[in-house]
Predict the structure.
Amino acid sequence: MNIIDTIVADGNEIFRYGLSAILRDHGAFKICSEVDNGALVLTAYESVKPQLCILSFSMPEMEGIIIAKKIIDKDPDANILLVADKTDRSTLNEFLDSGAFGLIHSSAHEFELIDAAEKVAIGERFLGKQFSRMMTEEYKRLARKKKHPDPIKSITKREREILGLLTEGLTSTEIANKLYISPRTVDKHRTNLLKKLDLKNTAALVRFAMENQQALL
């Protein structure tokens, strides 16, 4: 069995000790350095050149996500597993932008920690179950959005002009005169708007325009 040289960095002594103990007990990991301060992680990394760096998001002096980026800037092949204490979209996005290989939550079971550590140590990607679920939900949301695109984005500049004038109470003839087009063209644009927005009449168009005034600017 190849022994994996590892750095464990976390500002909480009890939590850091627990991580290290789990990894030591597994037998495949050698804890070369335990770091409690974000500013010291870079120095420890340069000294040890570990196969794996387990790094908490929340660290004194310097945030873990910033440390991860600094390490990867110097060593693009660095195998970093981030441990987060939050499960929100912001945390997931920061991880995806960092270049780190793995992300788990601090509440992860020890089996998940070992699985993540082993995979990240050989350059594989790993996403803890909470974050994996979030990614799945995000993919579904984007798929729904793609299937049902924002109708406002399909409204042309001319249609927006006509919609604005309709909210001012102008008739088709008055709008035509103002825009130097025919009333028939105005009516055609109005019909297109009704279809795009799935609305039934001019009153509904006016209400839609008033409710979405900022988006239509």
